[in-house]
Amino acid sequence: MQDDKDIKLTIAPTPAEESAVQENLASASEEEKIDKDLAENAQETAEGHDPTAKTLEDIMHQEAHESETQPPSSFSLSRTLGGAILAHVIQSQIKLVLLITLFLIIYITCRYQCQQKMVEIDRMEQDLTAIRYKATVVTSFLTEKSRESNIMDMLEQQGDSTLQIPKDPPYKINVPE
Fold first, then answer.
1. CA-to-CA separations, 166 to 144, 157, 158, 169, in angstroms, rounded
2. Which residue blocks in 27-93 are alpha helix, DSSP H?
3. Quick one: which H or E segment has residue 121?
4. What is the pLDDT of residues 73-112, one digit of tens each?
């Protein structure tokens, strides 16, 4: 098994920076300062404590913190009424908000259709009740007009005397098959 090793990436100076350093070395008065600084930098680099050198881990850590969005830490009245907090919540949960909105639209549509059907059912029940009352009135009027005594009175008023009430009871005729 291989052991995991920390890999550190150091950023080396560019050739332009190296040429600037070499030009500074050319001057005699600064030569001593530069030699001293270079010796210190070489010693720190050899020890691995170069303060200007950035490791890959430091760069990734810095970029990760820059890309993160921090939630609003202060809940003030102006931020709440301005909608900043609500906007942050909606942005972070946009899929859930869209799903809830879809379910609300479906719920409202179904409820509206159900209410329309209930109104139609009530109207049809009222129509049915009115038709039943009308049928009952017509049936009672027809029953009243078709009574034997009313038919006889009507025939007498019209002067038709050929029809009379039978005096013999009716009898049944049996027909063999």
1. 21, 19, 20, 7
2. 28-47, 56-67, 77-82, 84-92
3. helix 94-145
4. 566 777 777 788 778 888 888 899 899 999 999 999 999 9
- Please tell me the predicted confidence (pLDDT) of residue 99: 94
Instruction: From 133, 159, 165, 134, select the one nearest 147 (Cα to Cα).
Output: 165
pTM above 0.90, yes or no: no
- What are the DSSP calls for 23-39, one per residue? HHHHSHHHHHHHHHHHH
User: Phi, psi (5° rounding) for residue 14?
Assistant: -75, 160
- Residue 44, amino acid: E
Supply 103's token pair: 């379910």
Among the listed residues 55, 50, 54, the one whose alpha carbon sits nearest the alpha carbon of residue 38: 50
- Amino acid identity at 80: T
